[in-house]
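#struct-pred
JK: can someone run the complex with coenzyme A? inputs below
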Amino acid sequence: MRGLLDKIKKMVVYDADTEFYAKVFPESVEKRDLLRLRTMTHADLHTVLEIERKNYQFPWEEDIFTDCFKAGYSCWVCEFQGKVLGYSLLSIAVGEAHILNISVDPAEQKQGVGRKMLEHLIEVARGRAETVFLEVRPTNTAAIALYEDVGFNEIGIRKGYYPAENGREDALMLALQLF
Ligand SMILES: CC(C)(COP(=O)(O)OP(=O)(O)OC[C@H]1O[C@@H](n2cnc3c(N)ncnc32)[C@H](O)[C@@H]1OP(=O)(O)O)[C@@H](O)C(=O)NCCC(=O)NCCS
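RT: done, structure tokens with the ligand placed:
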């Protein structure tokens, strides 16, 4: 029984008390308190790809997401009342965690979804990795503000990392030390 409970906890992260209060006293609970994280499945890919294409000029195709599943990466969606608002993916290997993608539906941005997912990925990495790394386009001021706000620091530049309209664009490399 305990094993089953732990398995469920690994797949879904939400606060049952908050959901109870939302039903009984709806005005006492904010939307960001009701965001629920759960592992991404194949069934989510349609919505995930829709958001991916809205957010990026050079979006990932389905095969990249399925490769992430196959590789056993930590793949999550964040939903509100059953609607997927965003998704995030993390790989962990030899003490290093890497945020591969974090993306929120443009219509749902600036409501705490990105922060909720980022903080969750950091918790997933804690205890399993010493450092969390990520790359970001230098022009992506919203993402950089979020990363710096949770404690990431710039550690370098990856030359020509991203595809761009006129060739390639450099990436900023950011890192968060966990211990
Ligand atoms: C980056 C992204 C994931 C942030 O998600 P979000 O849900 O909008 O972010 P949140 O509402 O949780 O904001 C958290 C913090 O990020 C910063 N932030 C978010 N959007 C911002 C903006 N447009 N301008 C400046 N800062 C911003 C703020 O510090 C904010 O904290 P605050 O709410 O206390 O002000 C989202 O903008 C996104 O999906 N962008 C497109 C995909 C992308 O570029 N992903 C990152 C690839 S490296």
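RT: quick notes.
The domain at 2-177 is CATH 3.40.630.30 (Aminopeptidase).
Residues 113-125 form the longest helix (13 residues).
JK: thanks, will look after standup
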